[in-house]
What we know:
binds zinc ion, single chain, mainly alpha, 11% strand, 3-stranded mixed β-sheet, IrrE N-terminal-like domain-containing protein
Amino acid sequence: MELHKENLSDEVLKLYEETIKNLDSERLHVIMEKPRIGNATAQYIHDGKGNFKIYITPESYSDYIFSHELLHVYITANGILPILTSFDKNADETSKSLAILLNDIIQHKWIMNEQRRRNILGEKNFLNLSLLI
Ligand SMILES: [Zn+2]
């Protein structure tokens, strides 16, 4: 199933257009299916070459969830936040795990602030939805 843009709120449509503006629209695919990996409700996948996929479980769709995944793409596509790959080439597993954890915390903090700033609401529902990545 494809995304129906006419169903998006104005705020989310604006975010969607801003996200694909700097991204060839061919490079973002929104797939209304449960993510194939793990138990997440929604997930974004970046192949490292500028191609993004967002998977969303249709029964769980909300503008809040979609905008969350879109903002992950937005951050990556625009290099908004530094991405820690690891602390060092020879980093041990602990350092690598810490880098992953820190990226996750930094991105989610930024995303939630940005959703508030853009008036995309639904944070309370979101907090009840575990496993959004
Ligand atoms: Zn996330």
